[in-house]
Amino acid sequence: MTSFYPRPTTRRAPDLDSLTGIRSGKPSFYPEYRHSAERLRRVIHALDQISAALVRTVEGSEALVRAVVAAAADHLSARWVMFALVDGALPEAAPRHLVLGRDGVEVTDSGRLPDEIRGHVEQVSHGSFADDHDGDVRRRHAHVPIVLDGEVVGGFAAWTGPDRDIDATDESVLRILAGQTAAALQNCVLYQNLAAARQHQALDEERHRIARELHDSVTQYALSAGMQIELCRGEVTDPGLLMRLDTAKDLARRAVEQLRSAIYALSDDERDDKSLPAMLERLSSVHLPEDLRVEVRIGGHPVPLPAAAEQSLVRIAGEALFNTAVHAQARHAVVRLAYRADRVVLSVSDDGNGRPEEVRRILRAAGSGPSGEHRGLANMQNRARELGGTFAMTRSRLGGLQIQVSVPL
Asked: How crowded is residue 168: how many other Cβ atoms within 10 Å of its Cβ?
């Protein structure tokens, strides 16, 4: 009898393509799939370690090198991993080479290294990076150059155990690691230089602040103390007291001179241009009152002078500006440096209340007392004479005093 009910259909188990999205009838597919998945997992883990290593750029090249070598050793389960830089390349990077042995232990004694590994270190250090190993050796050994701007600057080398073959994926990971290491090492140097520059800038700003404070406060008090001592000398007749006051005034004068030297040293920047025009420019911009406007004008073609002569001229200009700021009550000063055919002429002019005849009288009396103010004028004159030049004081076109020094070339 014929049945009108449909025959029951046989239920088929889901095939491989419904589970993986890939159709394959090969019995070896699943093992290959598992192998590919494991390789992908290792690659992702390796790239994650590389990223974690490269972010240590700010810690310096040493921390970076140790991190990237450890990342390579972990990815390859390597028995040995070697990193080395070519001699002369990236000179500020350190260490120059690093070798990790079993269990990630760093080997610092080259005598404990196998000859092959020690030879690779020397080979890379000398700039040679030939890959002449046969197929069997390359299954357990890989080395990849570190290239920066088209030039080999170093290299990685790794040796694995008998149960770990190095495949194309591993070599790709090592090339990525090498390329990123080159850029990161360069960034380390740039970052360290930037940090050093910022630190130097902060130190310069602090030095200039201290110089200004010394000029605006401590030096003024020392000068006032000397003036008070001079007033007391006029009212004392006891020879013993006069001798002590003279000693005190001499000490005050020496303190002012030491302060001026300290101010100049703090204001001087070793990195800056050491030419005479440049030193005068810096001199006019530091440790002077804010209400004193100073201009520097250079005439003629600058000619280098002996270092001692240029330093003496800078000291003369500094002394003149100091006197202008402290004693002349000036608001405007002009420093002129003129290079002529046979001589250099330096002048400092101001619009203060100084009078040439009065200053000349003070200069003539400089030998009779230890006044710091008198000593400064005498020092300027003596420096000019030591250079074989002349020292003169005249009325300035600005209305105040002009100090002029003429030195033969």
From this structure: 8
Say if 26-196 and 272-409 have the same CATH topology: no
Residue 43 contacts by C-beta under 8 Å, 6 or more apart in sequence? Answer: 169, 173
Give dist(CA 237, CA 249) in Å, integer. Answer: 16
Q: What is the DSSP string of 8-41?
A: PPPPPPP-HHHHHS-----TTHHHHHHHHHHHHH
Q: Please count the other Cβ atoms lying within 10 Å of the Cβ belonging to residue 189.
A: 16
Token pair 């030096």 in the structure block, residue: 219
CATH number of 26-196: 3.30.450.40
Longest dimension (CA), the chain: 157
Tell me the three state secondary structure of residue 150: coil
Query: If DSSP codes are grouped into helix, strand and coil, which group holds residue 208?
Result: helix
| 206-263: pLDDT as tens digits | 777 777 777 767 777 787 788 888 888 888 888 888 888 888 887 887 777 677 767 7
The answer as to CATH 3.40.50.720 being correct for domain 272-409 is: no
- Is 363 exposed, middle or buried, given 0-12, 13-18 or 19+ CB atoms closer than 10 A? middle
The parts of the chain modelled with pLDDT lower than 70 are 1-39, 43, 54, 129-137, 216, 257, 261, 264-274, 286-289, 366-375
Global confidence as pTM: 0.43
